[in-house]
Task: structure prediction
Amino acid sequence: MRRSLFLQIPLVASALIANAKKPLNDRANKGFEVETGKDRFQEELLIMGGKFDCKVSAKDTDGDLCIYDTVRQEKGGPALHLHHNQDEWFYVIKGEFIAKIGEDLLHLKAGDSAFAPRKTPHAFAKISDEEGQMLILFQPAGSMEDYFREVSKLGGSIRDQAQGSGELMKTHGMEVVGPPLKF
Result:
C-alpha cells in the first residue's frame, strides 16, 4: 500500500465516523421572513424592560442557534451570569449599552457587537435614555426560548423578573454569579 494512501485512511475514517454520529435533521430547506416588530411565532414576550421577538428559532435550526431582537425601554439588564453550554453574541442596533464579559467592561453603541463565550460571566445593561435595540444570538440554542417564555410570566419589569429568575436560570443551564451592572 502506498504511504500517502495509508495516511489518508484514518482521516477519511474519522470524517465518516463524525458524520455517522450526527443525528438526521428535520430542518426545512426553505427560508422564511419575520417582519419588523414581529415575533417568529406571534408571541409577545416582555422581558426585563423590553420586548423580545424571536427571529430565528431553535426549531428552525435543529437547536443550533436562536436569535432574538430586543427593543428595550427601561435602563438596566440581567444579573451577571454565565451559560454552561451557550455562547452569546450581542449586536446593538440603537441606543447605548454596557456589557461586562469576564473582566472587561465594554461600551457599546449602534453597530457595535460583543461576544460572550460559554462559561464566561457576563451581563449587559441599556444605559441610554432613548429606546435601545439589540440582537442577541445564542449558539447552540439550548432551552433559551423556553427560559424567555417562562421569565416573561414573572411580570414585565426588570425588578420583578430579576427576583424570580434565578431558579429558572439554573433550570435552563445558566447560573447567576453576581448583581446586575451599575451605571
In short: The first strand starts at residue 45 and ends at 47. The chain has three helices and eleven strands.
